[in-house]
Amino acid sequence: MTASTASTGEGHHRRNGQAALVDPLAARRAPGDPPWDVYLTGTVFLDIVFTGLDSAPVRGTESWARGMGSSPGGVANMATALARLGLRTSLAAAFGDDHYGEYCWDALEQGEGIDLAASRTVPGWHSPVTVSMAYEGERTMVSHGHEPPPEEPAPDCPPHARAAVASLTPGTRDPWIAQAAARGTRVFADVGWDDTGAWDLAGLADLEHCEAFLPNAEEAMRYTRADCPRAAAHALTEHVPLAVVTLGAEGAYAVDGRTGETAEVPAIAVEALDPTGAGDVFVAGFVTGTLADWPLADRVAFAGLTAALSVQEFGGSLSAPGWSEIAAWWRRVQSVEGQAPEALRRYAFLEGLLPREETTPWPLRRAVPTIGFGRSA
After folding, report:
1. Would the pLDDT of 121 be above 50?
2. How far apart are the first and last CA of the chain?
3. Above 90 in pLDDT, residue 264?
4. What is the pLDDT of residue 364?
5. CB 303 within 8 A of CB 285
6. What are the boundaries of each domain within the chain?
7. Which of 104-108, 129-133, 309-313 has the lowest mean pLDDT?
8. Which pLDDT value is given to residue 376?
9. DSSP-assigned states of every residue in 90-153
10. Which residues contact 227 (CB under 8 A, 6 or more apart)?
11. Interatomic CA distance for residues 350 and 24, integer angstroms
12. Care to name a GO molecular-function term for this sequence (predicted)?
């Protein structure tokens, strides 16, 4: 297995010989556009997810899970979510030359149409692994991996793309972010938990190159010292043009500091099977709507919808919905007798995007209990 051959991005819209259901950027495409819609880089994990646990594991006992799934994880969650929404996606990552690495490479390149020209296989480096246990609507994770090898793709010169998704690290600058922004790439950023406990916005130096910042409520309040997530969102617009704060079961709140526009959309109530990767799917939905130039409230609503659909499937990356799942949800909502008119109005913008007739799309890969059947599935 070697790095894939560079391409123009046209192949992304075909998977296993079938055309993608929807191209959300069709009206925006023109000759001379960047070859990629979104570029991202990071670490790919093999995720092993246990679901159907009645409670958290107890020390000294053995717990049996009713469900289990394996899928690419880490940055693969975001890459897959973007690709399934019809965006031409380029990923730079290191892959081990073990069976886990081969499975993840195949699942992303062949299964999802993600371009891996900027990725590479590293001999002798085993793939990082995360075991995730889902119970009571939450998850607990245990990960193992060695330090990324020096040969890991260094994205000092990222491919030209409309947008990029960056995960900011406190106290660290990633040169590729400034370089991408200088070329006109719109950078969307999220952030993980600050293990240093400083929660200092000045430590997120690359935020100055970003168009949007999408933390959760706890992260936003800690970074801004605000006493509520909505106040935190407004405070963040002093550092980045667009702030979107996810509010868990309450939905999300967004502020555009350039126009003063705000949007708050409640979450869609669903029975969550596995929340792994839902935050990544939310970001992917918001990026899609932004590149398509939708109104702010529609972008937030679409992001919340895609995240809600994802938690009803096993696994992180392979739980991400495609347009066929979105269309099925919309038809179901319209068919429910007594459906609240405001709910129908909120997602009416989907009408112009979704196929008018029910189609039979190429089935999406889903997380499976083992990777052993990958070559014959």
Report:
1. yes
2. 19
3. yes
4. 66
5. yes
6. 26-54+66-321
7. 309-313
8. 44
9. EEE-EEESSHHHHHHHHIIIIIH--B-TT-EEETT-PPPEEEEEEETTEEEEEEE-PPPPTTS-
10. 221
11. 11
12. kinase activity
Nearest 5 degrees, angle CA 28-CA 34-CA 36?
Answer: 90
The one-letter amino acid code at 298 reads: D
Pairing of strands 67-74, 120-122: unpaired
Cα separation, 177 vs 307, in Å, equals: 26
Residue type for position 211? E
Residues in the chain: 377
| DSSP SS3 for 357 | coil
CATH code of domain 26-54+66-321: 3.40.1190.20
On the question of pLDDT at 73 being above 60, the answer is: yes
- Within 13 Å of residue 189, how many CA atoms lie on the same side as its CB? 30
Structure tokens at 181: 């922004």
DSSP per-residue codes, 197-209: S---GGG-GGGGG
Overall average pLDDT of the 372-376 stretch? 49
pLDDT at 356: 66
Q: What is the pLDDT of residue 8?
A: 39
- The pLDDT value recorded for residue 334 is 82
Residues near 144 by beta carbon (within 8 Å), at least 6 away in sequence: 128, 129, 130
Please name every residue paired with 68 in a beta bridge, in sequence order, or none if there are none.
Answer: 50
Asked whether the beta carbons of 239 and 201 are under 8 A apart, the reply is: yes
Distance, CA of 116 to CA of 322 (rounded, Å): 20
